[in-house]
Every structure is written in structure tokens, then in C-alpha cells.
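hey all, quick one before standup. I had two proteins in the batch that finished overnight and I want to keep them in one place so we stop losing track of which output belongs to which input. First protein below, input sequence then C-alpha cells straight from the run.
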Amino acid sequence: MTVGRWRRSPLRLLRTPRLLAAAALVGAILGVVGALPLLFVPSVSSGALERQIAPLCTGTSINPNAAANGARVDRLPAAVASVPGFGTPIVSRASTASQAASLQLGEASAPIGIGTRPGFEANLDVVERADAGDLWVPDSVATRLAAHAGDTVDLHAAGVGEAETVVPVRIHGVFRDLSEQRLSDFWCSLQTAIAPVAYITDNFPPLFTVTDAETYDRLIHATGLRTNITRLEVPFAPAPTTLTSARRSVAELPALYEAVKRATEPTFDERKLSFAPPVLLSSRLGFVTSRSAAIRESVGVSITPMAVVAIVAALGLAVALGRFWLDRRRAEALLLWVRGVSPLAIGGQGAVELALPVVVGGALGWGVARLAIAGVGPSSSLDPGTPAAAAVIGGAVVVGGLVVAAASAAWVARSLGDVRPRLARRRVPVLWEIPVLLLAWWSWDRLRQHGLPLVDGDRVGTIDRWALAFPLLAMIGILGLLARVFGVVLRVGDRATGRRSLAGWLAARRLAADHRPVALLFGLTALAVASVVFAAGLVASADATLQTKAAVFLGADTVVKLTDATLPPPGGLAGRVTAVGRREDVRIGGKPADLLVVDPATFASGSVWDDSFADESLGTLLHRLEQAPVMPDGAEPVIVVGSGLPSGALTIASDPTHPRPFHRVGTSRVFAAFEGTKPLLVARSGAWATAPVATERLLWTTADEAHVRTALRASGAVPFYVLTKDRVIDGSGFLPTLWTFAFFQALGAVLGALALGAVLVYAEARQRARTVAYSLSGRMGLRARTHWAALVAELAALTLGAVVAGATVGIVVSRWVGQFLDAAPRLPPGPLGRVPVGSVAIAVLLGTVLVIVTASLVQRAAGRADVAEVLRGDV
């Protein structure tokens, strides 16, 4: 009989599908919490690589400053080919802006630069083309010359110290001007020859034309343009996507450097003929790799406490699974105990029964973690061997969960035959939350002292794991106290509900009967919700702060400077654009300040604003600025931004003899274009009409770059530059903290699944008692609708109450921590708080669905159960 019992045990759980599903869910959670940290950390280093490589030109750039004949440039491909680990090199060249070149047709002329890069035709937006020709020109050049594909024009050029040369060239095709669009990665290496690299420069390169390498050499030689920009891109083969492959590629770079150096060493004759500087080869991959390793180490250390907490919580669910299994097998376990079977053997039978669904669930959990890493992790690329290592650790956690479940069942089995009456005694509560909150306070103090870790170069600031543990400790301590209060409320709740509602009274009685496990489940669910809301709020706040800082620095989401400042804003941007004037060489009382001249009627439609910037709304400030009169002494109304404004009139460096008086009509702590280091005066258009203020004219708009460029092209306006806020501030230094809390958010989702499993296990464990009670109560007149309402009230008090508590605590703690989340502390504004409304709404929705579905399933099972079979113990 004993052998048969053990032989049948692995499949016996098939008779209780809900407990089977709960066991599989517990196994899946164990698998996820075991595997996810090991998958997440390599994902961080790969994500750091991708983020840092993305803005760089592909491969390794070489700037040889080659001689006119290009002899040393021709040696570079062979040198690269002699070194393994690198792909076919790509040579890109362009004439420099220091030498004059232009295309002329009749009386029309257009300054140009000439460039070449293999495969250029596939990366042009072609407008028209001829069957053959010498030069591809942008449509801006074609418009100036009134030329078309197939026409012949004159190329005028002059080398250094030489007379002008005229060479006839045929236009091969016309393409959309590259300087009027955001450059693709293909043109990255030649960007200095195409458009201004930064908005601060006043040098606009000549209009970029392009041709094949053979024609380029012929034109350069014919025109005497001796100097040119040469870039050799050496792509890695394969391109590094993980920290392991990046380190391997970095190890191969010295061999490449040496090969290029040997191949391009100038000969004796070359040294005699011309100055031959050495060929310089450089790659940022070494720096990027070191920085990625530092970010990986920072995140790995930071998430360790949270990963341990998740594993402990999952093992706690395994404890509940073991106890609930014994509850379903109580009659059989009691019979075995009477026959002398030890509690340890009973627990072992529970492990054998639970093994199959738990192991299958663990395997599914590993698969879920592997698939989910693409969404929750910074990258889906992982170092070799990472999935296997994660499977081993996840498997160990699953086996540990089985052992814990068996031990839990064995521990409860010790008291199966104890029928002696127990003396009632008052329990002294152990307030473990107090030391946890004290530890959280100590962690908070460390957080205030050290802040959150930032990456500086390839080094990460001091990592204080106890400081990073503050949010977790604070949420555990606060929610522990709330769970304890919830348990106290449950014990007295039935007295308050009995007179009002039968369904409420039933729910309160059931909750009060199991107040300890229910309070524990309440705390676990609330912790899951708090973790998700906290991380979502922190990420949203950090993103909002970074985006707002960038927009404040520029003044708007997108800033345009036109080559013709007299043109009006494009009609395609109507309602989303404003024209402003800026001046930085301003002094007030001898001290530096900035000046912004705005149109109050349109300013709000194109600039950046947040309600935290001032005590008054932007509309109120602009209305006051527009309506305020000029004072008798000529003082113009202004809005003063910042503090420390000295007394005196405004003067301009180029015109110091004409002071411009002003009077304050409003103040703001932060404003568009405010840098934070000196006061900013905001004046209205036409201010100081008797002594006009000459300013740089800019267009500010809330439209994105693609929309702006489309509108500019439709209006015929040519931009000097188009700058967007996402290209202003580099937030990569804050990646360790952001990714740490992204893991926190993913962990909160896992804890949410854990709480879901706990609710299902709780419902399944109480199913037998509910079925018996419902059957007996039904014979006394209890209606099914009332019983279902009692189930909904019971589960709603538990689940939705935990959602509300967890969301509130998560928001509060995210606000506490968010004040340290500032990737650019020198730029205004300070950290902005954001409430993750979406995450809270999803938590409420999922909680509501869980309550209704679980209550319906329990009601259906209770209504269809065979009471006699249930009373016999379901053996």
C-alpha cells in the first residue's frame, strides 16, 4: 500500500486542477525570480553598449590628412584586411570649406563642397536623374541655378595660392538637400561637410554635392583642391552587441593600429615632396566598453537586495503552497499519521505530488523571463552562457521552493493528531516593522548624504547599496504596519457590518476567521503594487525632468534658426510656433544677464512651460506683460526670471551708451531659455522702440523635427539649424539608477503575479469550508446572489484595499526618492514629480478583474460540488 501510494503521488494533483494550477503558478514565479536577475544584468551592459554606440559613426574612424595624390589612403584597405575581426573598410572623402568652390550657370552661382562615399546613391532622396553625369547636386543648388539633371554647368574652384580653375561638369541627378533633413547613420562620417555640427557655430558649410570616387579624384585633381576630409570607417565583424564581444573587439584594436601605422608610414620621397603627418586611428569602443562594464557593476550591486527579497517572498509563497496542500489532504494525512507515518514522510509525499507542476511551472518561468528580458531589460542581447546560467540558478530556486513546501507541510503535519485542548494565552505582538523603519530612516540619511550613483566617464560614483535599499525598506515597513492595522480591522469588522448587510457580514466573518494569513496576503499584494507604482513614478518623473530641462535650455521642444531671419514662421506650424529674440551680451548694473524678446500673443503656443515654474500661470504673466504700459521714464515692462537681479538699467555690450530702463510686472522661478546661472529678462516685441534691441531671431515650436522640416520645405525656408530637445542633454550618466528602478518595476510585476498566485491559493485552500458552509446556508435560505456578493466583498476588501494602500505608498516613496533623481543638476528646473496614473489605473483594473473572476469561479465550484464527497475529505 505504501509503495502504491508513492507511485501514484506524482499524478494525484491532476484530480484537483485548481491546486494544480496554483502549484504551476508558484513554480513559474520561482523560476522567474531565480532567472530574471541573471538575465537582467548582462542585458544592462548590452543596453549600455547600444546606447553609447548609437550616436557614433559606424566602425572606427581614421583621419589620415592624406596628400593630394591619395597614395597613403590607398594603402589603408589592404592594411585593414590583414587583421582578423574587421570588415571591409569604407573610405569617405569631402572637400573642405576653407577652399572656394562653386557651380555657375549663366549669371547664377551656388557655393558647393564635393564629397564621395561608396553606395551614396541608395541613401539619397532622388528628385530627378539623368542616364549619366559627373555630379549629384541638392535641389537647393538646382533651384538657384535653374538647372536640371543632364544639364552642364561650370565648376569654379581655386586651390591654396592658385588661380581659379573652371571645369565643366554634367549634373547626374538632383536630390533632396541633406542639410534640410536629419542625417542618417550613412552620412555620419561626413556630417561636418554637410551641415553645422552644433547650433552654437556660425559657420554653415557650402552646399554638399556628391559623386563617385573616380570622378571625385578627377575633379579634385583638375581644380587643384589639395586638402580634403578623409574618413576611413573600419566596421567590426561582427559588430559588438554584448560586453563579451566588445571586450574581444577591443583586444583586436592594437593589431589594427599597428597594421595601419606600418602601411601608411610615409616614404622618404613623400617626406621630401610634402608635409606628411602621421595617420591617426582612433576608436571610442574601449571607452564605451569600460563605461558599460561600470554600469553593469553598478546595476548588479544595486539590484541584489531586491532580487533576494523577491526570492524570499517567492519561497514564502511556497510555504503557503505546502500548508494549503496539506489542508486539501488533511483526512488522508491524518490516516497516515495514525498508522505511524512520520510528518517528514508526509511532507515528502507533498513534495512528490507538487514536483511535476512546480518543475513545469519553473521551466515556463525561465522561458517567460527569457522572453520578457527584451521588454523589461535595456537590451535583448545577452552574453554567451547567460541563459544556461539563469536556468541553473532558476532551477535551484525551484528545487528550493519544493523543499520549503515539503518542510512547511511536514511542520504542520506534526500537530495533526494533537487533540488536547490548548490553553488560551495572550500573544505579545512582535512589531518587526519598527526596526525595519528605523533601518529605512538610516538608509534615507545615507541617501541624502551620497545621493544616487552617476556615471562620470567610465567610472560610476560611489555605490551605497544601503542608500539604494531605502525605497524597499520604507515600503516594507510602512505596508507591514498597514497590514497589521488591516488585521485588527478584520477582527472587529464583523460587528460593524452585521446590521447592515448579510453579504458584508459573511465577508467580514470569513476575513476575521483568517485574519493573520489575510493580513499577510494584503501586505504582499500591497508591496507588489507599491513596487510597480514606485518604479513607474520614478521613471516617469526622471523622464519628465530630463525632457523639461532640455526644453527649458532650448526654450521649446524644437528650435529653428533660418538662414533668412526676415521670413515669417511657416504656415504648416501655425498654432504651434512663436518667434523670439535672444541676447546674451546683456548687463544690468554691471552684472551679466540674458534677454528674451517674445510675442505674448503666440509665445504660449510654441514654448515650454510647467506649472511648477511660477506661482502664477503663464497666461497671467503674458497678459500682464502685454497690457502693462510703458512708464514715463521709458521703462518697459518685463518678467524677471531667477534671483539676484541687481538694480539699474539694461545695457547691451555693443551699445553701452544707451541704457534701457525696465520695470518688473511679474516673476518666475524658471522660464523658457533660462540657464539658471544669471537672471533672465523677458520683454515684449517692440520694447525700447526708441533704441531697438538687435537680437538673434529664432523659431520655437512644440512640433517634432520631422513635422518642422516638412513645414520648412513646403514654405521654401532654409534652416541654418534645427535643434531638438532630445539632442541637448545626455542622460546616459544616470542609466544605472534608471535601469535599477526599471528592474524594480519588473520585480513589482513579478510580485504582482506572486500576489495573484497567493490569492488563488487562498481561494483554493478555503474552497472546502466555503462549499460546506454554502450548502448548509443555502438550505436555510441563503441566495446564490448574496453568497456571490459576499465573495466579492471579501476579495475586494483584500485585493482592492491592497491596491489602494500600495499605490499610495508607492507614490509617496517615489516622491521622496525622486528629489535625488537629477541627471543635470546645474540646469533648471529641479526634479519634477509625476504620478504614474496609467500604472495605478492598470493595477485597479487588474484587481477588479481578479476579484470578479475569482469570486465567480468560487461561487460556481461551491454551487456544483457534491457536499457528501466534500465532507468525506476529498481523499
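OK second protein, same deal, sequence then C-alpha cells:
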Amino acid sequence: VYLAEDTNLKRKVAIKVLPQPFALDKEMLARFEREARILASLNHPNIATIHGLEKSDGQQFLVMELVKGETLAERIMRGPLPPDEALEVCRQIAEGLESAHERGIIHRDLKPANVKVTPEGKVKILDFGLAKAFESAVSGEAPGVDSSRSPTITLESSHSGVILGTAAYMSPEQARGKPLDKKTDIWSFGCVLFEAIIGRQAFKGDTISDTIAAILKSEPDWKAIPETTPLKLRDLLLRCLQKDPHNRLHDIADARIDIEDILTGTPADIIPAARLAPKWRILFWIMGGLFLIASSVLLWKIFSPSRTKPGQVHHLMIRLSERAPLAPSGIFPLGIGRTTLTLSPDGSMLTFVALADGHTQLYLRQMDQDDIKPILGTEGAHSPFFSPDGRWIGFFADEKLKKVALSGGEPETLCAASLAFGGSWGSDDVIYFVPTDFTEIWKVSSAGGVPEPLMALDTQKESPEYNWPEVLPGGNAVLYSHRDGGVAVYALKSGKRKMLLDKGSYARYSPTGHIVFGDRGKLRAVPFDLDKLEVTGLPVTVLDGIKTEFLGAAQFTYSKDGSLIYVPGVDATLGTLMWIDRNGKSEPLGLPQADYGAFKISPDGDMVAIPIKEEGSTDIWIYNLIRATLTRFTFGQSDSGPIWTPDGKWIIFRSERGGTNHFYRKLADGSGEAEQITDNEPCIGTPISFSPDGNLISYICRTTQLMDIWIFSMKDGQAYKPFLQTQFTESFPAFSPDGRWIAYNSDESGRWEVYIRPYPGPGGKWRVSTDGGEESRWTQNGKELFFRFGNKWMVAKVNTGDKFGVGKPQVLFEGPYINIPGYSYDISPDGQRFLVIEGPEQGLAVGQLSVITNWFEELKRLVPTGNE
């Protein structure tokens, strides 16, 4: 690049000499000229202008605007920018990108070295679109081919004629050579913003390959972000640096708006994370109720009915304040998979779950009043829902379905519901709910009684794994979701079921004639004919950035008058596998974010069998911990729950191939075909553990709304034997290393606790946990038993010798980490490390509760039903 003078217009310019390949190839040069003309059409104060493409003495060069000052890279070399300076620079970068994106032009090589800051503080983006333009020419694509879909050039930058996206700022899709859109610039913008704040790159390796590997598999060092960084800015960084472009911030304009909000907000609006230190998570959760109280008061005062005109749509984002320093992610932080908010049918009351004084509880806000009151007796509650008349609230707590009158009084227990996933109160005073860990939909009178299954299922052939039911208006049908995704409807009179959507979860009916549902961090809607019980159009995304839990619960609620309240956030389905030592120190396993199922480490500790869900189907993969390679183990099936035989030669798993559920086995080296080993099972089962001789498999057996523990014999063939059948729910049966004991969970005390019984019995039982527990695992020497409860990982000493004994459990470390169906963790053979799944919002606070009044007007505009 040279300083030059335009002798025609008498101005200083910069000229960039083109490399020889362009000068020698007329066809490539012609294509580049066409691209350059498009780029020259950009006219924005934050984009350095291309004046023209010239030729002199056979040498091609670009004439560009001369921008004085230093690059952002040069500025960062002196250290991180102060927050206000970093935000102002990045705000201007976002403005420039926004203008270009509106014209369909992407940069593809955004980095600090391509950003200049003038002495007056004006930001100019350099080389805008040149990566795309040069790549189009180099790729030699035919005329008419969309150059934005060409593969990324990955030659060394020292090679003549190559301009490429710089490795440290490439998006994952760019590094993989996939088709690109404007979200690749949003990723790079996040990298630039991170570097401006921290003073070092978000992704860096010793070589280009190492850097690209870090982009594909690792996360930025989130802990390096200064504690004084506003929580809203942390959230913006997280959304920009989502590896999956579908979960990434979709428009750079949203980043600009967020930054402007931070820059123009009051100190109370942009309270930094340091205000929650040193034990910010604990304080963060404890103060949850206080924030929502303050935010709800502010919400009603600003958007009360008296201030909102009919049909007028208002959007509100309530930020943190020093007087109520907690964001809505504090709402039920341990309730992974459960719902949090519910509005009364008429929109006059909001009920929510918050954590205060170490426990969750329901709170009620009368929307026309200023005070919020805790609902007494609702400790441990989750998934609240209103009665049709708005006088009662149904909820789940203490492994039971309960209700409480808003007029006062103690909650009433209706029936058992040990691992409930959603409830809905019909106009006929029947409550439909999923009582036990995705089993099936049951119904019970709102007065209480013995629950009954809603559908007639063949549990030997069907997998009754449903959740989030909702009674449709008129009480003639129930919407529900499938565990693996998809929305269906059940007609109560005919008993017929119908799949409506193959993707999505937590479907709710809208009086506008739509089904609204969550789908990986998005809120989507589809026209729906209530009389015919069928969709009449295609789903449309109506909101992006809604907190969606790992098990499908989308955190939103709306009333019949069209008021919508939701918790902003991302899709928690995509997690990252992490090693955690006994002191809570974490280290990424090295795999990218994915939708992981219950995994199992091999007996020698060298490999991990991991179910991964992609496009609605779950397959098992094998990750070699020594060689850091991931290999597909099963293909195109619904396979889950892998366990290794004690010798490590075989993997046993559950599969739904052929439309039925059975246990299969396959050689761990991947050779051969999967072999079905069970048939005519008494129930749908999930394999949990092997006896040390490799003969017996303990598994969870679902025959009713409860779960029991059964044993399957490999040698005897088709030999099924119950080990523990009671009126309670039992699960996670783990053989001890010597095969003489089984540790398991039971809710006989009113909540999940860990017990040990002798195998095969008879004998007594010993309770291991003292304050809740589940998912127990033995060390290989049988001297310790690990388990988890909520966000705590515990260990208890065990003596399995002549005199059996159990020590007092001790806390090893605290999460939270994602709680998936089945085991949510495994332990290394030496018992020193734990493999867990970290969520995309791990350790980050959601800084606002979002509200849209008269939202139905937007819904009808975005998704016409044809009836307007």
C-alpha cells in the first residue's frame, strides 16, 4: 500500500497494488473489476471508500480513500481498550457492517488490522468485501455463480495472489469452507470486540491449524473478561461467538443497538458482573426474586393498559439495576428442562419461579398493583400453570403434582409426579401432565385422585416419551411434544394421534389461530385449524433469542389479550463436553458444541461413547481420548444409552430402529453390524450398568407412570427379572465393582435420594444421600460413591467389606451443568475427573426480561392465517 496523490482531484489517496496473477489473467481481472464496482458503490462514513481500479505501465492497482491514524490492531498492542472506548469503536464498526449487509455485501476478513481509527476517533473499515472479490476471481467460478458460496481459500498468505479470511477471526463455517452469509461477519465482529476488551485474541494457536482447531472445538477464555464488564456486553459476546450460525446473533444491527443501550444507559442499567462478585453465582441466585419483583413493577408502570392503545405494539427490555442485581436467569437456575413463567388467562397476574434463601419458590405479581408476594408452601416448585378461571395455580414440587388457591391457604397434593415435565388445566377440571421423566401423558381430576394414562400405548413397541402437554380450547384435544423433537396432537374423543411438526417443542395455542412453539432458541409459529386439528401453512420464526432449556422448554408465556413475556437467551441444547476435577477446575474435552446425550467412558479410560443428535436422529459416536478423534459408531438410527461391557469389547445400547425399542450390541471397534439382544421385553428399558462378570445388565423399566429396576441376563437369553418394584419410582441402578451391591435412586422419601441394596438380596437398604441425590456412580475400587443433586456433585465413602458402611457425603464442586435424560456425567477410571456438559450460557447472566404488549398484532402480521 502506497501513499499517492490523485492529480485529477488534487487529493491524497492510498493505492493498493494487485498481485501478478490478476494482471496476467484477463478473465480473472474482468471478474474482479465487476466485484470492485459493486464494492465501490458502498457509501458509508465508517467504510473506507474504493475510488477505482486503475492501470499504469501494465501494473493494476486499487485507488482507495486515504485514512489517517492507527489500526485497531496497533492500538490493542498497547493494551486493552477502556470499556467506553472499545464500545464506541465497535459501535462504529457495527454501523459500517450494517450498511454493507443491507446491500448484500459481506466483509469476510474483518479483523483489528482492517479497522482504522482516525485521530478524531472516526472508525473506518478497510478492505471491505475484498476477500470475497479476490476469492471470486481466484476460484475461477463460472459466470452467474453466487460468489458468496465459494469455498474459503486456505493458502498461506505469503503465496502470491491470495487474500483470505485471517485464521484467528474466521467463523467456524468459513474455516470449514461452507457457504457464508452475514453471520460470518458477526462472528468476526465478536472476535474483534473480545480482543478490544481483553487485549488478546479470542482464538489463538501456535500454527494456523491450531488456531482453526481452537475455533472449531474450543471456547474463548470467558473468565478473562474483566469483572467490570457489563453483563449485557457479556451476553452480546456470547451471542456473537456461537459456533452454530443458526444460534448466533442474526443481525449486526442488534449488536449496534445493544452497544448504544450500554453507552447511553445509566450506571444502574449497565451494572457490571463485578457487582455480583466474589461469589457472584450464589448472590446471583439468592437475589433472583428481588430482581423480578422490581422488573415486574417497572413493567406494569410503563406498559399498563391505561398507557397502551388498542393494537399498539410495544417492546420493553428491563435491565439490571443496583437495587435489584439479578437477571431472570436466576429464575429456577437448577430447573433445567422446566418452565419458569406463566401469565393468567386474562393477563392480570404473573406467576414465576425464583430462587431466594437457598430454595425455589413461586411468586405472584398482580399486574395492576406494585407488590409481589411469595406463595407460601411452594418451596421447590417448578413448571407453574393457571387454572382456566385464574383462581388456582398448578405446579410440581416434592415429586408431586400440587395446586394452590390464589385466595390463600396451603397447597393441596393431587397425585405423585416424580420427574414431571409440564402440566395443563382443562376447562373440564382435568389436569393433563407428564408425571415421570418423559414417560407419557396422564390425566387426573383437579380435585386429586388416581391418575390415568391419556393414550393407549403398546409399551413393548412404542417409546412413550412425551412432554409439555396443553389442552386446546374446547377441551377436545391435547397438544404435546416428543422428547426428540416434534409437535403432535391427540383428539380426546376419537383417540387418534397426529404429528403436526417434525421439529420444535413446548407448543402453545394462540387465539389468533396459530401454534406457537420453541425451536432451538427461536419462537416460531404456524397457522393451525382448531376444528380440523391440522396446520395450514409453514412455520415462521417470529422471535429470536428466547431462552430454551436443554429438554425443550421455551421460557415464554402469553395471555389471551396478547401480552408476551419471555426470558432472553440462547438454545441450551448445544453443550460442550468438559473435564472437571474434584476441585471444580474445568478443561474442555476438545469437541465442538453439539446436542449430546448420556455418554459413557470406556473401562480403560481411553474412549467415550457419545450419543449426538443431528437433524432429529441420534447416533452414537466414539471419541478417542488419546488420539482426539471422533468416529461415528451407529448410522441413521435413534440410538442412545451406550454402556461398555467390562472388558471393553462391546457396546450395549438402546435403539428405536425398526420402530420398536430393544437393546442392541456392537463390537466397540466398529466392526460388524449391530445385533439385537432383547425381545419381548416386559417394558421399555434403558441400560444403566453391567455386573463385573459382564453377564447382567441393570436397567430402568417403565411399565406404568412409575419406573422400576429390572435385570437382564446376557447368558441366559431373554431372561428378565425384576430387582426392585415398589409404589415409588426407582432409577439409575448401578452395580458395585464387586457385583454384590446396587446403588439406585428412589423418591420414597418425597424427593430423589440415593440408596444402596445388596444384590441379589435379600437384605436391607442404606440411604447414602442426606439432602437429595441422583445419578450415582461407583469408583472402580468400590470405595467411593459419587452422585449429584441440582448443581452439587457429592462423594461418600463406602465400605463394602464384611461390615457394610457409608460415610457422610461431602460436596466436591458445584455447577450448574446441563442435566440431560439419563446420566449427566461420568467419571474417569481413577475417580479424579468428571466428564460433564457445559451449557452455552454457563456462568453468564441473562440481563433482562423482555415484554411485548399486543404481541398478537405482530404475530398476525408475520404469520397470516388467511382468515384476516
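Flagging for whoever picks this up: The two ends are 60 Å apart (CA to CA). The first strand starts at residue 2 and ends at 6.
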